[in-house]
Amino acid sequence: MVILIGYLLLVFVLLIFLITISLYTFFLLYSSFKGSPYVATRKKRIEKILKEANLKKGKIFIELGCGDGRIVRTAVKKYGVKGIGVDINPILIFWARLLSLKDSSTSLGMTFRVENIFDTDLTKTDYVYIFLMPDLISKLIPKLKKELKKNCLIISHGFKVEGMKLVKTLETRPFKTYYYRT
Q: Tens of pLDDT along 23-43?
């Protein structure tokens, strides 16, 4: 009887593990299909990118396609901005929320939302960070032009945002980072 319960418990744990892996994989594929695969940026690179942005305390920083939220968490922690992380992947948003709870001072200045970036209100934003594929960026440009207020800084890691005023380029490998002003 004890052996049977042990086997059933093992099967249950394996089943939960397989379901978790399947859901994680599904949502990663879903994010990729929607135009924004999850690709993590290294901590040193994040710090360099944000330092160049010259972020001001209390301003609103939105990361579109935030993944695990490492960019917005760093911006809130180091620069005191009010951070919003937006991603279509609920598992990554759940993970971002868990990671932000580690540092209670950081979690107070940020929120994470499961949301399509095209539904995100950008009208009060001071800084927008994107690390999205070129096709998705080109679809996002009309929204950026329509909703962003004057002098909003757009930070695009990896790919150019055509039709915006380029302020500077940061040479980072493997991707350059572009800074634009509206």
A: 666 666 666 666 667 777 888
